[in-house]
Each structure stands twice: as structure tokens, then as C-alpha cells.
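Re: [help] complex structure
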Amino acid sequence: MGKIADPLITKEGANTESFYDFLISRYIAPHFTFFFKKRGVTNPNVVSLFSFVLILIPSAMVLIFPLIDSILYRIIIAVLVQVSFALDCSDGQLARITGKTSKLGAWLDKVFDRVGQFLVFVCFGILAWRQYGNVRFLYLGLVTGYGLALFTLLVSLFDSLRFDDLDLTKVATHRKSGDQEPDAADGSSKGKRKAVFSVLSKVFFFLNFGIGERYLYLSFFIILNRVDIMLYISTFLTMLRVLGISHFIYKKLKKLDGMRIKDEETKIR
Amino acid sequence: MKKQKSGNQTYPDNDRIDSLYTFITEKFVVKPLAQFVTGKGGWIPSVITVTSFVLILAASATLLLLEQGRVINRVVVAVLMESSFALGLSSRQIAHAQGTGSLLLGAWLDTYLKRAGEMILYTTIGYVTWRYRGSFTYFIMGSCTGFLFTYHTVIYALKDAVFFDEIKNLNLEIENLAEVKRTVSNVDLRTAPGKSTGEAKRPSRHGALLCAPLRLLSRFSIGSGERYLYPILFGLIHRYDIMLPLVSVLMVVKAVFETYVLSQHIKGNEAALGA
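Output below.
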């Protein structure tokens, strides 16, 4: 599929959190966006709901019809997962090109995503448990689902605690794109640390376990009929992500609290 | 500018007395404990929060490792759960008494660890019931209930996050960060100062009739206190198999109802902003 160069659509690409998200948002999702627009579906919330229902279908399929040995069956599941993800990307684009961006839409999109991801990983955990006869896979699926829920909790709590003295936009951009800060070039240990952080951010941009990668791994390993490997990788990356973001937010909030206490002390003096 | 009154707070599971059990624990256990600890000085609220989390982990481990057929083991689990709940509540009171109640790290840590602890506890209860009663459904019920506790907090936090800039721009007279946190959640942009859009849309009579019992059910049947009360009571009589269906159904009703209410709230606020 070709590239669509509509600024309202490419804007989505700039906000993606990883390489795979970027690819889908830039090259696949716009086709769905224009398809919906042509067909007169202009309410982005309908697309979000459709994406949510689409992710529930493969989850239910693996529970109800465990025909996992059939390659055709596996391909259908993989395709449904990918289409659901592309629709998830296209709802924002549709909202922008139809001028129907809304707070409710942003909120609903996130809520659907989180519930869908939890259910999909738990269902695939149950599938692997049945397939390999090892209950460990059920726990791995559950831990991944919980980890993703906790990750959202951490980030949304952090976002809702935003205040004037913290420019989260800069923090988020830095975290996502790995932009080098000005003093990263100097020779001090702080500068070196920031330079290392910047390189790591770039690496994580490609290896990040964002929503796109979750669905990519899911589709890839289901086609190979190796859900067990997918669960190991997902659990590991989710835990890494939760620990990383917890550490990051902990440090940020500690710094903010420190600044605030200092401010108050100055006022008292 | 007129200051907004604070009532409902950002993370209702943590910050509001939303159940009878929370009220009783707060009045008879937490307040005396907080007064005692504050008098001693040197107690850090975040340490108490972490201790509360460790206690819930200990309760889960005890549930998992010790034979629940013996009464003494069930009592140990109940005591650990109750201690964890009381400590969780007291950390906030101690923070307020020490004048550190507005610090962000404590608020964030408190919510995060409580939800993580509840997820672990309910999954463990589900697992133990599955092992004892032989039905996998109990495990699914426990896991989903644990997830829904987190889901409930996430939808509130996401709502705050999407509206934060607008509320900040209203220039409300806010004294400290805790007040900001409360105001962010509480403010109804339809009636906020500086917004003359006025008329908040009232629900229809039928809608109000339906909402009232659901609101009562969702608030007082499975509030923050009941999440601990039910495992304590049903654990003591060794009937988690009755508790899990009850709690999971209540939690599903609560989640669906609150999602609906929040979506209406967001819609209303957005309409006010547009106007």
C-alpha cells in the first residue's frame, strides 16, 4: 500500500511510540481512514468500538474453537489482530480529518485499548496452557495483562498529576524520540549519562513494546504456532517496561516534591 | 475567583470514605493509630504505604502456602489483610498531619501499590479457590476482579489527564497541589467559574431512577473497604467460592456503571468547553 501524504494523517505518525506503530499509522491506517470516510462513517468512536470488537473476536476464537493446528485458522487470527490495530490507529486520523476530535473519543480509545489488551493476553495464555499442558503459560498471559494494566495506571496517574513546574510534553518527547538535550554534548559525567540515555531511547524506539509490537508479536508467533515464545517475550518486555516507567516516574516526582519543599522553605524565610 | 469546593476526589478508591467498613476502620483504628504515630514523629508516610503493600503480599503468600483448612491460618490471613488495609488508610492521614499530604510521590505510590496489591490478592484467592474447589472459573473470576479494580482507577486517572489543561486554564484559586488534585476531578466545567454556559443537563426521571440504586450499589457494595472486608469475612468461614462470584458480579456492575457515568461527565464537560 502506498503512502498517503495528508498532514492531518501524517501527524499521527509523529505521535507514535515505536517503529511498528509508525509504519502502520503511516502506511496502512490511512487507507482504512479514507475507506470509512468514503462510506460515510464519520464518528471515530464507532471505529474505536469496531477495533475493540475485532480484538475480542480472535480472543474468543482461541477459547471456543481451539483449531490452532490449522494454518488458515492461525492466519485468520493474525489478520484480525492486525486489522484491529490498524483501526485503532485510524480512529484518531478519522477524527482529525472530519474535525471530530473529542475528549470523550480520546478517553474511550484508551479505555477500549486497555481492556482489549488484557483480554487478548489472558485468552492466549489459556490457549498456550491447553496446547502445551503447562499452567505456567496461563500465568505468563495473566502477568502480561496485569503488567499492561499497571503500566497504563502508572502513566495515567502521572499524567493526571501534571503541574506547572513539569513540562511533560518535553519529557514524553524525549522519552519517545530520544532527542538529545543540549548539555549531552559536554564532557561532564551528567552529559555523558544523558548521551547514553539518548542512545538507549533510540534503541528502545525500535525495540519498544508498544501497542503495535504487542500485536505484531502476537500475530507473528501465532502464525508460527509458537504462542509460548510470544508469552515469554511479552512478559519479559512488559515487566521491563513497568519497572522502567516506575523508576522514571519515581525520580521525576521525587524531584518535583524536592523543588516544592525548597520553594516553601524559601517562602517561609 | 470563587474557590471550588472539594467533594469527590481524584481516585475515589483511595481518597474518599466510600463504604461503611472504611468509615468504621477510619474512625476506630486509623485515627488513633495516626495520632499515635504522628506524636512519635519520624514516620514517613511512604514507608507506611510500602509496609501496607508488603503486608498484602504476606497475606497472599500465607493464603498460598498454608493449609486454609486450619482456623489459625485463616485468622493469620485475616489479620494481615486488616493490618494492610488500616495502614494503607493511615498513611494518608499521617501525611496530612505532618503537612506532607500534598506531595506527589506519596499520592502516586499509594494508588499504585494499592492497586497492585489488590490484583495480587484477588488472583491468589482465585488460584486457591480453584485448587480447593477444582473449578477454573474461580481463578478467572479472581483475576478479572483484580483487573477491574485497576481499571476503575485507570478510567478516573485518564479522565483527569484528558481535561487537565482546560481545568488549569480556569485559574481557580487553589492553595496547594492536593487541592489541585481534588479540584481536577471534582470540577464540573458546565458550572465552573468563568463559564457562563450554565445549565447542566439533568438526567431524565427514568435515568435518575435507574442511576440512584446503581450508584448506591457501586459505591457501598464494593468500595475500598469491602475489597478487604469480603476476603476477611469469607476467608474466616473458608467460603471464597461464595465470595468470588459475588464480588466479580458487583465489580462488573460497578465498572460498567462508572464507565457510563464518566463518559456522560466527559461529554457534558466537553459540550461546555465547546460552547
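Chain B touches chain A through 44 residues (CB under 8 Å).
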